[in-house]
């Protein structure tokens, strides 16, 4: 089926390739069980732990992770193609420098001189889709030819292993990793459609606390972490179950494909219950909704590109097939979905 609309005047943009990186050796759940407390929240399905995850080392920066994730793209497309990137977008869960994002340093490390550099903090677990949307808009409306988007999740090791945090119910769920995508202005693996929605009514429902009155930048006792209550967990579950299928179905409708006919459905991966509910809502068998949850945990924004990379390297993404990506962010203030006619190298 040809999804390219000949009436469109904007040039096609392709997700030409993806690549992922996981830091260090796998960390088993037994690391956390030695610190676990008797906690009612631990019984909540939201926090059922994966079998494993990866933790970034203390001295490994977000720039290091992006550089290592990009290395396979350099091998496949050549150093010149990467150094000539026109647009660079980054999303970092835990910025190494709270004053600025890693974009300019990533460009320096990779020998780039892009004309557009944006460090994008919103988008959360849906940041890969959000950055595809942003990069496509730049490529279609300027003379820019290529874009690199990079999602870095690096808070599992630094934040969730803190002495006061590692015993909490949510501590074993996140993992660290980085996923990147190469976008090119051509029709080799065209982006068929993207849907991005912001829900301001849910903004502010995701809270960060130091378990006291101290602001995170102020000195004093208390270790910072995202906080949950049972009522807020219930709201997030309800929203997430609804938002991801909604944006995914919107894309399916516009490209003229039934959700049950999607070849591969890749989402963020907060927990197993979301994954099950989403593939059921899309009427897809589990094998067409791959994830890396049990080996990587919740990778936040990096979940989609890391899972895509794993499927691509395993040869399970057939060129010409329709790949649908969808995710929601934070407590539900953002959701996005994108469809691609796959054709990436591996």
TrEMBL record:
Q: Which SUPFAM superfamilies match?
A: Thiolase-like
> What are the Beta-ketoacyl-[acyl-carrier-protein] synthase III C-terminal domain coordinates in residue numbering?
253-342
Task: Please report the stretch or stretches of sequence annotated as the Beta-ketoacyl-[acyl-carrier-protein] synthase III N-terminal domain.
Answer: 118-199
Keyword terms of this UniProt record: Acyltransferase, Transferase
Q: Which InterPro entries match?
A: ACP_syn_III_C (IPR013747), ACP_syn_III_N (IPR013751), Thiolase-like (IPR016039)
Q: What is this protein called?
A: 3-oxoacyl-ACP synthase
Q: Which organism is it from?
A: Nocardia tengchongensis
